[in-house]
Amino acid sequence: MSRAGIWLLSLLALALLPSLMPNAYVQYVINSSLILAFATIGLNVIFGYAGQHAFGFPVFFGVGAYASALLATQAIFPVGLAIPFGSVITGAVSAVIGFFSFRLRGIYFGVGTIAFAYVIYIIAQNWVELTHGPMGIPLVPPLRLLPESVGVVGRDVQTRIAVVSTIAIIIFGLDRLLHSPIGRAWHAVRENESLASSLGISPLHYQMAAFVLGAVISGLGGGFYAHYVGFISPTELGFHYIGVVFIMLIAGGAGTLPGPIIGSVVFGVLPELLRVAETARNLLLGLILLFCIAVVPEGLTGIWNRLRPERKAASDRPSVATVPDVAAEIVSPATQTGELKLGGVFKRFEGLTALSDVTLNVQPGEVVGLIGPNGAGKTTLFNIITGMLAPTGGDVFYCNREIGGLRPYSIAALGVTRTYQITSLFPELSTQDNIRVATHLRSCRSVLAALLRNKRFRDSEAAIDQTVDRILQLVRLQSRCDLPASALSYGDQRRLEIGLALATGAGLILLDEPAAGLNAEETDELCDLIRRLRAAGFTIIVIEHDMRMVMGLCDRIVVLSLGRIIFDGTPTAAAAHPDVIEAYLGTETADA
Amino acid sequence: MLEVIELHAGYGRMAVLHGISLTVNAGEIVSLIGSNGAGKSTTLRTISGLVALRDGEIRFKGAALRNRPAEVVQSGISQVPEGRRLFSDMTVHENLLLGAYTCAPGELAERLEQVYDLFPRVRERSRQHAGSLSGGEQQMVAIGRGLMAKPQLLMLDEPSMGLAPKLVAQLAEIIKRIRGLGVSVLLVEQNARLALEIADRAYVLQMGTIVTQGPSATLRGDPFVRRAYLGL
Amino acid sequence: MFELALQQVVNGLLVGAIYALMAMGLMVILGILRIINMAQGELYMLGGYFCYVAVVTLGVGYFPAVILAMIATAGVGVIIDRLAVRPLLRRPFYMVFLSTFAVSMMLENGAELVWGPDPQSIPSPFSPMPIVIGPIFLTSQKLFIFAVALVMIAAFAAFLRWTRSGMAIRALARDRDAALLMGIDADRMQSFTFGLGSALAAGAGALLGAMFNVYPTMGQLPLLKGFALVVMGGMGSVVGVFVSGLILGVAEGLTAGFLSTGYVDLVAFVTMLAVLMVHPEGLSQWGKSRV
Asked: C2-117+127-278: which CATH topology?
């Protein structure tokens, strides 16, 4: 049975089966669990998909509940409007919190979101005029889909059908987003933020999008909650809820589509089954969370996936058929290529001058080798050209546009990209999906298009598939296109990295020690690839220590020593130049 | 004294050392030279236990040496890391004390005296914060810190990096005096000329394997060494 | 008006010193292990309860009971380190956050099961007679507790500054690889640090428990406030955290006296967020200040 079929059946079962239960309390428990699933789904968007550790995030469920309750009781909105409007308000609040939170790095981000959650909690407890304080808002009107007279279909059932239908729509939408450039961007930002940035994906943009979307979904659930229970108080904003939602998500399976729902239903129902141990509830929940973290971090859905290997997360497309290995069709730069001009660039860190007075011109189509002893500043120079560092002084121009000081994703959009000294890929993704993520700049990134799957979207995806094919052939990875990148051999990984650089469509590619760790044969293959890229119109700058390779491959050599350019000319001249020799082999100490 | 046998090591998927073998005998100054990326630092870091050993063996004073940093220091091998890595917010004195972490309290005074004798400038600055010293002075503190552990083998990772030529000459002197104190030295250097001047023997490392080795005198004039650096 | 303010200031200094003590433990764990110990608040709570048990059930004197509580809680801390933290250190850092969060849930529930949800007070050996200095009311208990908190903080600072282990902790926090090259055993130091951090939290809990009450949920807010202090005072600075603690205590006292008791807890969070907005990476990596 297809995925869609399983989903439909399960959702239908969730909607209708509980009606068979005689006990009204059981219905209540199931309904509450399903409503809480909104909070778990919302958390999954920011935590599971986008990989941001917003520990205070579940507070948005409560915010949505308050917003909807207030709209219905104070502003006399009909319930059917209060709930969605409430979730919009939640989205707005989350945008503000997100704006401030994303300025924080590392641990401080997570704790910052907790602080914000606590602030909201304290305000709800104390701003009595607005929120009625600790007593909460009573008499919240219920959600009614059918008029009173139709008594057969009780309120519980109505709510459940509304909830399950809404969840179905949300899941459908999320599924479409996940299988689009937006979903790929989220994954990229989660797995390797700095690589994503140098491939043209703005991390902040997608993190904020996930944050607000997750909050809107959570807020929607909060609205349903308020009108189902008929009452909302600050407890729903409290710490307890935060812990529970996290447990539900992780135990259900973070980062998967069904995980949050499974987790919510199981952990909504489970404590009721353990009524005997009511007082030890948190003790058991804590134990379960510990167990999950230690033994099954992928949660129930992860276990399920493990047991069914042939149905493991498939790539967006079936495998590329093995094409006879004819001289692979070359890809060309998608953006215009031009001259790279560095003028008097210098870079200072706390007291240490890493680069001084670096002036360099690189013409389109050149292959330039950048060499120099340890600590000379080569990688620093790359970092400045690609935007990971800003120059302290001097300017950097590409195609006559100033790029010095811009962010990596902006510079990537202007046609400059790089590979890294230490292998940088998306290990969880397959080889072809790695390349697919890197086509971000060429893709149709509209949310609406992704949801509607209109012609523009489908054409764009088809073109991307073609590009991915061609790059796979070029870097000779077609036969391994479905392997996760982490399973590739070291040499294959290095080639894949170059494939990613090509996928961005950039015309200027900076390669940082691409031959590191490669054997002689692999190095020759690499040189061959670089020559073909030059023939196709790419401009390439290479940092390398493998002198044989650099001398044979490059049109020009630039030598950096202690942050300054000490030589710029042909390879043969470089090898004979006394300054270069001295920089490498060292000075005499005889007369100091 | 130190025997490294067919050492394989690396970071993550990247293999850096492909079967290195070298020895350092008591009383020797041995150097490991090569251009960057060759694996020189990785060799020292593996011996010190900071990098996991994937294959091969390290033996010290006849016994197998375990790949754990604390044990390596206690066995008598001390490393002065690349870039000095002083604890910059602590005083010079505190840095030296930390160097003697594995020593008994009673020995501290004696060790300090020996280090201060070797580096009179350091004695002058002992109460200053390590971060406020000049590059050359920091290097001396770093070497002194390495000596505080009373090692029988001192490993130095690119001590001349970033030092002015005059200081580099002083460095050569100091390393010879250290040998005179009965400490053997394994010196990793990119500055091949300096290394070959100081050391008795040298190994040339390229792309993770030893391509040539021998007494310094022989290697000094060897055009192969130049080729190994410049790829001619 | 002025008397009220002064009274609040004095009370605030006392509470602040205890916050600071709690924060020291959090700071040292954060510095060495680079993790947030979400169970720190519960260790604080356990310190209070162990002290209570020692005094009420075992009949030990108050001060020995505080010491006993600190030692016992240090033991609990080491167990948490071995079981819930150590195995997860190679995983992404939110795993340790969640695992210590799980531990905190378990400890809180556990305390409720063992001792019940109602607050208990630790009988203290002090006379309840107030000491009046000008317009300020103090009790000998409060004075003594303040003094003990100061002594503990000073002892901790001295430990970090002058002892071999203290220097090893600072070295590990500053530059782990270099510290390993000194022969410092990182594994043992980590467990030791966790125990030390737990003991400090326990001390704070035992002291506060005598002044007010102990109850199972008493650790939730102090954890966050402790973190706020580490942010405000700067990682690695005992003086900074101590001064921030005093300032926070006084600010909370004044807020309670003049604005409203409900908004008291807001002070810590708003201040912490404000500091973080200006310094998104937190104030000073370990070591920029003197201790």
From this structure: ABC transporter involved in vitamin B12 uptake, BtuC (1.10.3470)
Interface of A with C in 244-273 (CB under 8 A): 246, 250
**With respect to CATH, is domain A340-430+487-585 assigned 3.40.50.170?**
no
Q: Which residues in C have their CB inside 8 Å of a CB on A? A: 30, 34, 36, 84, 87-88, 91, 93-95, 97-99, 101-106, 108-110, 112-113, 220, 224, 227-228, 231, 260, 262-263, 265-266, 269-270, 272-273, 276-277, 280-282
The whole-chain average pLDDT of chain A stands at 86
CB C138 within 8 Å of CB C150: no
Distance (Å, whole) CA B123 – CA B113: 9
Beta strand segments in chain C, E: 130-133, 136-139
Of the residues C37, C269, C275, the best mutation for testing chain A's interface (the one with the most A CB atoms within 10 Å of its CB) is C269
User: In this complex, is the C-beta atom of B48 within 8 Å of any C-beta atom belonging to chain A?
Assistant: no
Comparing CB atoms, the residue among A108, A119, A289 nearest residue C270 is A119
* Helical residues (DSSP H) of C34-125, grouped into ranges: 40-52, 62-80, 93-115
Contact A564, A373 (CB under 8 A): no
Q: Could you tell me the residue ranges of all domains in chain A?
A: 3-272, 340-430+487-585
Q: Could you tell me the strand order of the sheet in which B2-11 lies?
A: B14-24, B2-11, B53-60, B63-64
- Residue B108 CB-density burial (10 A; 0-12 exposed, 13-18 middle, 19+ buried): middle
A509 pLDDT more than 90: yes
Residue of C nearest to A238 (CA): C220
Cβ atoms of residues C290 and C238 within 8 Å: no
Residue among A376, A344, A383, A346 at smallest CA distance from A360: A344
C64 neighbors A20 (Cβ within 8 angstroms): no
C35 pLDDT band, cuts 50/70/90, is: confident
Q: Cα separations (Å) of C162 from A101, A495, B174, C149, C166?
A: 38, 53, 31, 20, 7
pLDDT, one tens digit per residue, over C233-285 is: 887 788 889 999 999 999 998 888 888 788 888 888 888 888 888 887 766 55
Report whether A571 contacts A369 (CB < 8 A). yes
What are the chain A neighbours of C110 within 8 Å (beta carbons)? 283
Q: In this complex, which of C98, C99, C224 lies closest to A114 when CB atoms are compared?
A: C224
C177 contacts chain B (CB < 8 A): yes
- Nearest residue to B43 (alpha-carbon basis) of B158, B142, B140: B158
Least confidently predicted of A249-253, A414-418, B205-209, C90-94: C90-94
- The answer to whether A309 touches A364, Cβ cutoff 8 Å, is no
CB pair distance less than 8 Å for B50 and C180? yes
How many other C-beta atoms lie within 10 A of the C-beta of residue B15?
16
Residues 6+ apart with CB under 8 A from A365: A337, A534, A537, A538, A539
The B77-80 sheet, strands edge to edge: B77-80, B153-157, B184-189, B29-33, B201-206, B209-215
Could you read off the pLDDT of A339-359 as tens digits, one per residue? 999 999 999 887 778 899 999
Residue among B48, B2, B38, B3 nearest B17 (CA): B38
Model confidence at A197: pLDDT above 70: yes
Kindly determine whether residue A105 and residue C269, on different chains, have CB atoms separated by under 8 Å.
no
B210 forms bridges with which residues in the sheet? B205
Residue in B12, B166, B193 closest to A588 by CB: B193
| Sequence-distant (≥ 6) Cβ neighbours of residue A102 within 8 angstroms | A109, A204, A207, A208, A211
| Residue B92: band (very low, low, confident or very high) from pLDDT cuts 50, 70, 90 | very high
B58 token code pair = 């390290």
**Nearest residue of B to residue A353, measured between CA atoms:** B162
Q: What is the pLDDT of residue A151?
A: 57
The span from the CA of C282 to the CA of C275, in Å, is 8
